[in-house]
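Open question from group meeting: does this chain pack into something compact, or does most of it stay loose? Before anyone orders reagents, we agreed to write out a predicted structure and look at it together. Recording both the input and the output here so the notebook holds the full record.
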Amino acid sequence: MTTATAAAVRLPNFIDGHWVPSSASDWLDITNPATAEVLAQVPLSDSNEVARAVEAASAAYPEWRRTPPQDRIQPLFKLKQLLEEHIDELGRIITQENGKTFAEAKAEP
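Structure tokens returned:
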């Protein structure tokens, strides 16, 4: 754990379909291994935030389970399309976060 870096972007949690700012007191730096530059910070969420996320997922599950497979697969097709459209951007992000070569990073998603 580290203290907050002034320039670092603090990333929110995704709970119940919404980006929610965290009330965490501890944050983890995400750094570029090649430069040690802090790219962002992620919250080390407390049990209350985790419980909210788990409750939201549990509440959504019964409806999702009743959704026909041909409808459930549509978000996966959309994800595939988005991955293909943003492959270069994702490759650059993976390179920054993991220190991989761009070609290797593009092959990962």
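Observations to bring back to the group:
The chain has two domains: 1-66, 67-109.
The radius of gyration is 17 Å.
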